Amino acid sequence: MMLHGSRGTRKLPGTMTPAIHFTASPAAPAQAALAQLSARYGHAALDEAAVVVALGGDGFMLQTLHATEGRDLPVYGMNRGTVGFLMNSYAEADLPARLAAAEETIINPLRMHATCANGNTQEALAINEVSLLREGPQAAKLRIHVDGRLRMEELVCDGVLVSTPAGSTAYNYSAHGPILPINSEVLALTAIAPFRPRRWRGALLPKGADVLVEVLNPERRPVMADADSRSVRHVTSVRIRSSGSIRHRLLFDPGHGLEERLLREQFV
């Protein structure tokens, strides 16, 4: 694992254990693990840490990555939740050795810029996906531009999403979108329950694509935007781009990294 580099190697006083900042979801198993691991390995303040260990499920991992944005700290997850796609298996023993042997994957989030019906704008980052979803009983009507060029005049659907490779097995996959190799440098644009064009399932876009989705008739067919469960209601347009200037460093046990997990998901 890269505990060196620009941040230097940080150790807890008098030990060979890297300075670990533990964080845990409110769930009882995660809190119990937090107490056990902190007692065994120490618990460094975030500003003094060389690595963050997140205890919980995938949702908590996303929270942790957002909370440590800009710190350039590697994050190693251990599953104390449910799905755990972004997590490693839990074990109390040999944590320093696992951290030293861990493989690093770097991912970039999506940046969402949403314009609302009242003229306000909001921005948010998404590690998994940015989605637009109908708010009312009627289907949404959307117009899609890619890199300033109109690509779809009208999409009638429950919604549409743009997914990163890291998020392609989450909501994107449930919406019948493709699983993307982690190093593929592409994004998935996936329709959610499309009605017209009925058989349109989406498109693969270059990672650097600038996607603009306009909401048609937003008064009668209101739409909300969502970036990793951070929602903006009554949007009229949403611009989505990969944010290459922000990176998240995820650590996985050897042979169990995101590339292997994404491949394995396709042969279940």
UniProtKB/TrEMBL annotation:
SUPFAM superfamilies linked to this entry: NAD kinase/diacylglycerol kinase-like (SSF111331)
Source organism: Paracoccus tibetensis
Function: Involved in the regulation of the intracellular balance of NAD and NADP, and is a key enzyme in the biosynthesis of NADP. Catalyzes specifically the phosphorylation on 2'-hydroxyl of the adenosine moiety of NAD to yield NADP.
GO biological process, one term: NAD+ metabolic process
Pfam families xref list: NAD_kinase, NAD_kinase_C
Reaction catalyzed: NAD(+) + ATP = ADP + NADP(+) + H(+)
Positions of the catalytic residues: D58
Keyword Kinase: yes
Residues reported in the UniProt entry to bind NAD(+): D58, G59, N128, E129, D158, A166, T169, A170, Y171, N172, Y173, S174, A193
Lineage: Bacteria, Pseudomonadati, Pseudomonadota, Alphaproteobacteria, Rhodobacterales
Entry protein name: NAD kinase
